[in-house]
What we know:
Elements: E1 7-10, H1 19-28, E2 35-40, H2 45-55, E3 59-66, E4 71-77, E5 93-96, H3 105-114, E6 121-126, H4 131-141, E7 145-152, E8 157-163, E9 175-178, H5 187-196, E10 203-208, H6 213-223, E11 227-234, E12 239-245, E13 257-260, H7 269-278, E14 285-290, H8 295-305, E15 309-316, E16 321-327, E17 346-349, H9 358-367, E18 374-379, H10 384-394, E19 398-405, E20 410-416, H11 425-431, H12 435-441, H13 454-461, H14 465-472, H15 492-525, H16 531-570, H17 582-606, H18 618-658
Parallel strand pairs: 1-2, 5-6, 9-10, 13-14, 17-18
Antiparallel strand pairs: 2-4, 3-4, 6-8, 7-8, 10-12, 11-12, 14-16, 15-16, 18-20, 19-20
Helix pairs in contact: 7-10, 11-18, 15-16, 15-18, 16-17, 16-18, 17-18
Amino acid sequence: MSATNETVINVQEIEPRLRHLTIFQAFDSLEEGESLVIHNNHDPKPVYYQLARLRGEVFDWEYLEAGPEWWDVKVTKRPDADTYFENQTYEEIVIDVPSLEPRVKHATIFQTFNQLRPGQSFIIHNNHDPRPVYYQLMDLRGNIFLWEYLQQGPEWWDIRVTRTVPMIPMEEGRMIINVPAIDPVHKHGTIFHVFENMNPGESFIIHNDHDPKPLFYQLKDRHGDSFTWDYIMQGPHWFDILITIKEPSITADKEEVIIDIPSIEPAKKHATIFRMFEELEEGKSFIIHNNHDPKPVYYQMLEMFGDIFDWEYLRQGPQWWDIRVTRRKSVTQPNQRQPIDNDDAIIVDVPSLEPRLKHVTIFETFDKLEPGESLIIHNDHDPKPVYYQLQAERGDVFTWEYLQQGPQWWDIRVTRKGTETNETIGEMVAKDLRKADIFKKYGIDFCCNGKKTVRQACADKGIDPVVVERELQQPTQESAYGHQLNYNEWTPDFLADYIINTHHNYTRKSLPEIRNFMLKVAQVHGENHPELAEMRKLILRVHDEMMDHLLDEENDLFPTIKELVKAKNNDGNCSVHSGQTFEAMIAIAEEEHDIVGRSMEKVRHLSNDYTIPSDACTSYKLLYKMLEEFENDLFIHIHLENNILFPKAIEIERSIVSH
Length: 659
């Protein structure tokens, strides 16, 4: 690492919660043309995106060293930094609320607000007064906006929402108290009210025109050492302070597990507790940590497991409840069972197993089943939590049939489904994105060739379909393609917007960078690596093809899809633009997808699956990393359109025509 007259930020020496804040403060203190160096043990690329979002494209980001142990990035403030936002044009967005799916209406408004910069606005167009949104926005983000009625009924309401305070590093959706906008009599009272209604771990920001340090001592006097006080900005015009409520400490015995209920997805909270208890050895305990009294769980456990545990309150509010649940030691009694018609199915006698082995045994038995084979779970209470765990970790690959449902015994037949030979690859990935990893492993194209079945694709590749089908029954929990979202349930217009905001924006940012790195690496290393010349041609083609393709979709194809959805919702007519039939437009888009997909397959082949050569420089390494990231995003991008968006839109168009 080398730096001359530059601030070097050694990220690992900074307390984690202050790392990004320190970088922003250092950047804000730079004069135009000055630089700082970020020194870190992993790629700080997220800081790039956060800095670009909050400060704009007013800096250069140069890798001096890019791993594998250390990353050094030189960040230089550009000469036009101070006038960047003044030179940007902004088009006011109108959110047509009645046209949105009910569950995404408020979310769309809040997401749009979070993208605003100071002075920017959007308009809410609705068929009734959206005043509740005002209060919800005030509760979530604070008094940092203006709410101006342009039209107030009786049929339509139009409201302009304008952001009034500057972008603040670390705000990330937090509540901001804009102190100068509050009546002086109520300023401190408002801050104390917000503070006292925050849960441990939550935070908010005070935005003021002078240093509110006296407030720190007032809070300290009333609430003690229960919070942190971090300056984001210290003058000369504005003072921004991040206040975080500290997490309480829980007194737990050694090896005693603490279940932090608020951090668990709501649908899995009770199942997590029940599974923990099922696996608990006699005499052992765990702690439930929650933000309200979980007494209903006590009664549910009593119903499910009987009076075999102790429920001890360690803390009872007002903000937090901690309960120690202990499994009592019991006298083993003989089991009296109903006969089971097992049809050669394997029976897992759960009560006879050691607690820690119960779920493990069920899963190991299930994983050994061939398609069409079954196991029977025999238990002394309903093992429904196992159903949800099996569904989450193995996917929709089994049936769950109750043979007996209490009151003493529960018997459930679990049957592994066979592969649906008529289901296409695209349909399979649309249902479970984790299966994309398996198709990629075997070089099977699930996006451009998603209309083939598994057996057809395997025949093309000369692969044993039985091997692939077996792995498809057990997709990995962690996918290279990110978090599993239920895209199949989204409406086409919402999915189209998601594709633009996620994949189109990513492509516009990353592909020009990849193109520039490709040109540089081919020029420097082309003599020793002749494959780079062909890769260069392919990347230039992908760049030009994708840039035109994005515009075609955003200006023509996606607006047509939205018109179709609107026509369907209103039982009206829809006219297709550009003189083409709708399915012809889809066919052109899919053909362009195929061209780009084939080009990236060749790039992967030429690069030997992005294997970095021994003589690679930093730019060479970064290029391969960016190419692989782009390929992963591209395949999901094409998959969402070819296998979900386009089929749904064609179905709507056909229904309108037939109607």
